[in-house]
């Protein structure tokens, strides 16, 4: 069995460090130490910490994509039920981290977008890609009359993702799931209300 490459070890260490400590709180030396690599090996694989962070973000988003695909899969529940399943799945993962970790994409959006144009652009692309499966599920629910049609599916998907990120931010500040519960309660009473006549 082949041993993981130094590059892969660095990316895995970066996933841990950047998610746990943020961009500024994860020095390259700490990442190389965690990866079991020599400090100089970092620049053999990544021209800059910024490009490294972009690869780590892409790896994290691929992981998020598997969660989205599993939760929104058309395997029985209604579209609204599948959306609820996604938020419940993420809530369980946040609980496992004692409400302290949040989402790396949201964390980076706050921390690095004012300072790195390259990372800001990549984060913007990620949100655009992330919205699509939610918009498709919402459109299906609108067609079935179980999700409000007061706004477009794209707008509702953007609203859901933005509001969920805000709820996770407040959850981290308070170390409490109440903002997530409030989000789900309000979404259930508004978005998942029957479509207008």
TrEMBL record:
<dbReference type="InterPro" id="IPR009057">
    <property type="entry name" value="Homeodomain-like_sf"/>
</dbReference>
<dbReference type="Pfam" id="PF00440">
    <property type="entry name" value="TetR_N"/>
</dbReference>
<dbReference type="GO" id="GO:0003677">
    <property type="term" value="F:DNA binding"/>
</dbReference>
<feature type="domain" description="HTH tetR-type">
    <location>
        <begin position="4"/>
        <end position="64"/>
    </location>
</feature>
<dbReference type="InterPro" id="IPR001647">
    <property type="entry name" value="HTH_TetR"/>
</dbReference>
<feature type="DNA-binding region" description="H-T-H motif">
    <location>
        <begin position="27"/>
        <end position="46"/>
    </location>
</feature>
<keyword id="KW-0238">DNA-binding</keyword>
<protein>
    <submittedName>
        <fullName>TetR family transcriptional regulator</fullName>
    </submittedName>
</protein>
<dbReference type="InterPro" id="IPR011075">
    <property type="entry name" value="TetR_C"/>
</dbReference>
<dbReference type="InterPro" id="IPR036271">
    <property type="entry name" value="Tet_transcr_reg_TetR-rel_C_sf"/>
</dbReference>
<dbReference type="Pfam" id="PF16925">
    <property type="entry name" value="TetR_C_13"/>
</dbReference>
<keyword id="KW-0804">Transcription</keyword>
<keyword id="KW-0805">Transcription regulation</keyword>
